[in-house]
Amino acid sequence: MNEEIITKEENEKQLSGFVRTISEPLSKHGWPSWLVYVLAILGVIYLLNPTFGVLEFIPDNLPIIGNMDEGVATMLILAGIVELIEGKKFRKTEKKAKVEKQSKSDSQ
After folding, report:
1. Could you give the CA distance from residue 15 to residue 27 in angstroms, rounded to a whole number?
2. How many angstroms separate the Cα of 86 from the Cα of each of 23, 39, 46, 90, 108?
């Protein structure tokens, strides 16, 4: 059996654009991580408050578009979860690269 070892870069190339976009933390694109967490918390509050009506932006009785605001709230929660999991990894590798770059410049 000849099994190939797939590196992380090769694996990312195999993912579709949608999956790759959802699985990347927003801090990788310049968003502050605290803002992503705040938006995720607002999404949770919005979803936990379905019938109160004060926070209902689009009425649910409108066909198709009535559930768009709940979909956006779900995507905000998903972005917060991805930021929590993948964002830590990204910041850790960024910090490591910064330290290595600084140590190389100090040694020269």
Report:
1. 20
2. 8, 17, 24, 6, 33
How far out from the chain centre does Cα 35 lie?
11
User: Which positions of the chain have pLDDT values less than 70?
Assistant: 1-13, 15, 50-57, 108
DSSP 6: P
Cβ–Cβ < 8 Å for 27, 90:
yes
Q: What distance in Å separates the CA atoms of residue 35 and residue 74, rounded to the nearest whole number?
A: 16
- Predicted confidence at residue 52, as pLDDT, reads 59
Quote the pLDDT of residue 104.
76
Q: Are 100 and 92 in contact (CB under 8 A)?
A: no
Residue 79 contacts residue 40 (beta carbons within 8 Å): yes
